[in-house]
Amino acid sequence: MKYRTQIFKVTFMAALVAPSFAHADGDAVPINYDSLSFIEEPLAVELGGVTVNGNFLVDQSAEYSTNADDDDYNTRAIGDVQAEIELPNTWQLSARYVANYDRLRKDSYEDDVAVSISDEWGTIAGGNVTGAVFENTRRKRGFGNAELKNDSFIGALDEAGGFYSVQYNSYTFSATADQEGRAEVGASFTRPIGKQNYRASLRARKGDTGEDPGDTITAVGLPGDTLGAALVGEVIYASFLADAQVGYENVELDRQAGDNDHVFGSVGFMYKEGAYRFSLSGAAGRYDGDDRRSAAFGSQIDIARGASFNIGVNYEYVNDDDDVTSIGSMRYEF
Predict the structure, then answer these.
(1) Which H or E run includes 113?
(2) Residue 59: pLDDT band with limits 50, 70, 90
(3) Could you give the 3-state DSSP secondary structure of residue 138?
(4) Residues of 107-122 as b/e, b for ≥16 C-beta within 10 angstroms?
(5) Most buried of 15, 26, 80, 242 (most Cβ within 10 A)?
(6) Backbone CA torsion sign across 78, 159, 184, 285
(7) Strands 72-86 and 290-304
(8) DSSP one-letter string for 97-109
(9) 51: CB partners within 8 A, 6+ apart
């Protein structure tokens, strides 16, 4: 009976939007963002020669899962403050602080700090920046509360490290490394051709299974080294976007003989119409003989400036077990 009740709740949440979440672009300090992002222009003020701007967000959600005994009601908040100044030699010096509160997360309060210097030779940064190459080369995240699982590497980098990127015409090259010697490099190409805009990116990572994988698939629970690469392609036509990813990773665990192959792929579609945004994506992969599948539907409905209603219906299958979760939330950003 409870399983049927959960299925009803999932169906009901999806029906609410049968009639998002976007990322801030052009950020000088490449901090790796969490599962919430900003759509409004930042608040800015001039303090002497320093420009200080900020974004703030509050999200109140209700979540239903077919594998959970109780429903979750979560409160999340993000504060993002950045200070920038142009030096006499035309270098752009920036510092950024992002505070992230998630009431139901194990570590409810987390923060990221980074500093960077930019000029015509590119951007160099230090701090919590090791997720920046991934953010620059990944597939687009879905709208609303969509969260696609099984869509990246198992191995990850430590949060703290260094980052460098440079843009040359339609090409952008970036690299990051942490203090443990792990690293990730990426290259991307974007250009309008005819009525469409095309983007392609390639990234390669030397990671570790002991680090928090963040958006990636469930960690294997044993320390080990990984080496993988992923290719992403994207096309945009008017308000429609389609993208796809294929990837391979070799996983060598410290306490297990032999290597494991991890292959994964995903596709996604996004559409915007006035105040409505919709996304649908799916992923499939295989690791250590186990199939992994996932799908995510998301929608964001803009209600007023900065206010939106967001939903997500997310499916995951791993180790012969599946789960469906639905999330609805009210979000305010300013």
Answers:
(1) strand 109-119
(2) very high
(3) coil
(4) eeeeebbbebbbeeee
(5) 80
(6) negative
(7) unpaired
(8) EEEEEETTSSS-E
(9) 44, 45, 83, 84, 85
Two tokens at 75?
């409160």
**Chain-centroid distance, C-alpha 155:** 16
| H/E run at residue 297 | strand 290-304
SS3 at position 22: coil
Share of the chain above pLDDT 90, in %: 58
Q: Which residues contact 169 (CB under 8 A, 6 or more apart)?
A: none
Provide the sign of the torsion angle of the four alpha carbons 89, 118, 25, 199, taken in this order: positive
What does the alpha-carbon distance between residue 59 and residue 229 come to, in Å, rounded to a whole number? 34
In the chain, the largest separation of any two C-alpha atoms, in whole Å, equals 69
Residue 322 C-alpha from the chain's centroid:
22
Q: Distance between CA atoms of 209 and 124, rounded to whole angstroms?
A: 27
Q: What SS3 state is found at 2?
A: helix
Q: Are β-strands 171-178 and 72-86 bridged in parallel, bridged antiparallel, or unpaired?
A: unpaired
225-280 confidence digits (pLDDT tens): 899 999 999 999 999 999 999 999 998 887 666 678 899 999 999 999 999 999 99
Q: What is the pLDDT of residue 247?
A: 96
Nearest to 156 by CA among 138, 178, 140: 178
Amino acid letter at 90? T
Q: What three-state secondary structure class fits 47?
A: strand
Note the helical H segments in the chain. Answer: 2-15, 132-137
Q: Can you say whether the dihedral through the CA atoms of 59, 63, 68, 71 is positive or negative? A: positive
Three-state secondary structure of 194-230 = CCEEEEEEEEEEEEECCCCCCCCCCCCCCCEEEEEEE
Nearest to 80 by CA among 23, 156, 145: 23
Going by C-alpha positions, the residue among 204, 184, 294 that lies closest to residue 248 is 204
